[in-house]
Amino acid sequence: MFRRILVPTDGSEQAFKSLKYAIGWAKEMQGVIVSLYVVDIKLLEGPLFRDVGSILEIAPLTNYQNQLQSLLEERGKKALDISEAECLKNNILCEKILQIGIVSTTILEQSELCDIVIMGKSGEHARWSEGFLGGTTQAVIRRSKRPIIITDQSEFRRGPFLLAYDGSPSSREALRISAELAKLWDTPCHIVYVTNQSDKGVLNEAINYLKTKQVPFFSHLVHENFPVSGILNTAKEIQAELIVMGAFGKSRLYEWLLGSNTRSVIHASTCPVLLARLN
What pTM was computed for the model? Predict the structure, then answer.
């Protein structure tokens, strides 16, 4: 389960933290790290580069593009070498991949041959970001067919984990993953269902599934209007080391227009968040 782990890197401190967390995950799973560096094709062929070239009357422009590409590839090789060295130090196998392309698209393509993706909340341009998450991270979350762990901590810690459940297809996949993790780590699964209604049907659905899987669990029914605060407060209460949830809730349109609960949980969580999505 989750033995082939894709870890994108851009050479930033945040990317190195996600690598170290992934190494801890790989030790638990007896897994392999696939370290990926993508040379952003938009830096080589984008309009900004062409406009600067024309303003400065650079000719031939192709020579400068080739030089820039070589510099970016060299930077990528150094980042991958750092990833490999860290893996070897921890006796973890590491595959290195360097590609040119659109960053998020290339990550998604490579993820199809992996079991899970582990990446940071933001990358090297975090200090200029106005949003909750880096643009690449958001793009990968929205389109990934594989589970993703988003983390800004470097130390993997096995311990209590929280499943945020709302009965949506993606949260059912998160439920399946949670049952497997509870067995693997020999730790109870804490389920939280946040609702402003009295109906327990959704929570009972998750409880019955875990009972059939013979997985120890604790259930938390939180009566609240705001799912994000209910999830985060419960995670804090149980001192969760991981939050597992669906990448999208019941209403994709609601999340698109008004802001994703998923994104808000990732932004505010003090522990890593594992996002599941039903393909």
Answer: 0.87
